[in-house]
What we know:
The complex is a heterodimer of chains A (about 350) and B (about 80). Chain A is mainly α. Chain A is built from 15 helices and two strands. A two-stranded antiparallel sheet of chain A has the order 1-2. The radius of gyration of chain A is 18 Å and the shape is globular. Chain B is built from one helix and five strands, in the order E-H-E-E-E-E. Chain B has one helix at about 15-25; strands at about 5-10, 30, 45, 60-65, 70-75. Chain B has a five-stranded antiparallel beta sheet, covered by helices on one side. The longest helix of chain B is centred in the first third of the chain and has 10 residues, at about 15-25. Chain B is globular and about 30 Å long. Chains A and B meet through helix 6, helix 9 and helix 10 of A and helix 1 and strand 2 of B.
Amino acid sequence: xxxxxxxxxxxxxxxxxxxxxxxxxxxxxxxxxxxxxxxxxxxxxxxxxxxxxxxxxxxxxxxxxxxxxxxxxxxxxxxxxxxxxxxxxxxxxxxxxxxxxxxxxxxxxxxxxxxxxxxxxxxxxxxxxxxxxxxxxxxxxxxxxxxxxxxxxxxxxxxxxxxxxxxxxxxxxxxxxxxxxxxxxxxxxxxxxxxxxxxxxxxxxxxxxxxxxxxxxxxxxxxxxxxxxxxxxxxxxxxxxxxxxxxxxxxxxxxxxxxxxxxxxxxxxxxxxxxxxxxxxxxxxxxxxxxxxxxxxxxxxxxxxxxxxxxxxxxxxxxxxxxxxxxxxxxxxxxxxxxxxxxxxxxxxxxxxx
Amino acid sequence: xxxxxxxxxxxxxxxxxxxxxxxxxxxxxxxxxxxxxxxxxxxxxxxxxxxxxxxxxxxxxxxxxxxxxxxxxxxxx
Lengths: 354, 77
């Protein structure tokens, strides 16, 4: 049986949705079976890059996603080391994307997972995410580009997967090197083997199908194409059904797991993530997949997200569950959005003027 | 769009696809890059008119022609 692209995306979405529910049942925090931003933040904490005691853990899901993408792209001939497309700008954009995600408390993938759990705060965030993507599409239509990515050496291309393997080996062999939360979200996790396997499977499927939480909405805006959005919709449906079956579905704004109801900041947080994702060419999940395929530009964006997570917790920029972001986080997010708009404007109109 | 003359052009940026679509004579459609051609999720232009390499600009990456179930390269940067 030949399955078309939409069918493959739907299957991938269901796999991610089911994996998210299973990981939550096996120990991950509520509505956080997968969250690229949260898991990068936890991993940054484990590596002593920040010292927020409740969010420190080396998340095997992140390692699995990068290595799943790496392994399949090598096997299928998709592994192409490339980079040099404004790496420092991508670092900065990745940093701001992480800031937006930590003000909302989740990446686009967790936003959909939260929606599937009945968290209506994520609906406000979705409106912000769509608005951010819409603004990004205006820039794309006017000529926005961060420049051409050129071929790079194999050594450069395997650097990110190699660092990922090294991190996992050290995590297993010398765990005393790392910090691990004893309370809070960082202390809640599925067994290592299951988390790694889930990451590997999701990484491989997402690599094959190019699943991207921002790309689906972007393609509807830009070319009226509904292919990529299939994955987004399938994740939502799978998580929704999974939560109903496991009795975890709870509709409403209040008392949602690791969430807050400061609507304007949920909106603006995901606005930044949507705009930044369009500028980077994909959501945080897609950046991990592309890094696994040999894109050093995406690897730099991931490093920017890790740095953003560290700064977010060291300077009290991240929101707190229940109470939302403090003054520092609000100011930083507004500045971040201004910087994104400034980069987008210069990268759009400078090129047209050349 | 006639399958026997079908071609697809891929680009460095979405803007390049927009500019190319304006230059191409005849029917042309913006669509995602076929997965069989690339793991990138950029915008491609599907068209049927003959491809003139002199119309290539800085944004154009490659042009492929449909041959049976496969795409064969007819121009590449």
